[in-house]
Amino acid sequence: MDKKELKALISLLDDNDESVFEVVNKKLLELGNEVIPELEIAWEQSINEGFQEKVENIIQSIQFQLVKDSLKELVASDDFDLLKGAYWISRYQYPDLDFEKISQKIEVIKKDIWLELNNNLTALEKVKILNHIIYDVHGFSRNSSNFYAPQNSYINYLLDEKKGNAVSLSLLYAIISQQLDLPIYGVNLPKNFVLAYKDEIRTFSTFQENDSDNVLFYINPFNKGAVFGRREIDLFIKQQNLVYSESYFVACNNKSFIIELVNSLIISYEKLGYPDKVQDFHEILNILMS
């Protein structure tokens, strides 16, 4: 559709006939992301609040559909990339977010760590370097004063403000580690998301979720990368009165990591009273769990 036809189609949103609106709305949604610039121009040129609201709703629907379609592709791929998963979750709230800008910011941190690493270091020594660069050099920390703020879960906000929650800090830690070929994965421990450092003898292609014997130690990114063992998880389970599960000790795959990120956003938006956003993230959750 050329610009002239598209403008004519958008102008029909001003029609009071509901059946006309439904046809136009459906067509614009089918055309997708490419029509957003013209919709934005139409919004700016109009003084009709009703028309502007219709345009805003269509733009939001198109952007949300793009997020869902992109996550479906990621779920269907052979390799679920953690950074891409985090990026598309952030695109829900920040539709103009640039993937390359996110990648570049992570690349700076990764390069600082890479310069300090070598093959002669032990796993603990490598984690010590990760912790120093992430927390001491780049100044990342937990957001304790505004713990349930949804922004804490978005990767772009974390990179800009250097503050996050347990899931987002663990997410950043794991993204950087995996890009450096360090076998660090999420562990879905209720109320306290942590990471597992797996035995480096195994390659990523032989990753197995249900294999706690292959975990060398655990890492808590919410506590500046503190290292601990299985005994501490046992103690935590007892303190929180949780029903024992071996899944609390094993590394989860990257898709499960993003599922936990979405769950944290659902909790945040529920507490703030945003039912529409809660519903949207339940849709995203269904895609990730398919």
Task: Please describe the topology of this protein.
Layout: H1 3-11, H2 18-31, H3 36-45, H4 49-76, H5 82-93, H6 99-114, H7 123-137, E1 141-142, H8 155-161, E2 163-164, H9 166-179, E3 184-187, E4 194-198, E5 215-220, E6 226-228, H10 230-239, H11 254-272, H12 275-288
Parallel strand pairs: 1-2
Antiparallel strand pairs: 3-4, 4-5, 5-6
Helix pairs in contact: 3-4, 4-5, 4-12, 5-11, 6-9, 11-12
Would you kindly provide a written description of the structure presented here, covering whatever features stand out?
With 290 residues, the protein is of the alpha+beta class. It folds into two domains: 3-76, Leucine-rich Repeat Variant; 82-288, no CATH class. Helix content is 58%, strand content 8%. The protein is built from twelve helices and six strands. It has helices at 3-11, 18-31, 36-45, 49-76, 82-93, 99-114, 123-137, 155-161, 166-179, 230-239, 254-272, 275-288, and strands at residues 141-142, 163-164, 184-187, 194-198, 215-220, 226-228. The strands form two sheets. Strands 3-4-5-6 form a four-stranded antiparallel beta sheet. Strands 1-2 form a two-stranded parallel sheet. The longest helix is centred in the first third of the chain and has 28 residues, at 49-76. It is elongated. It starts with a helix and ends with a helix. Residues 203-207 have low confidence and may be disordered.
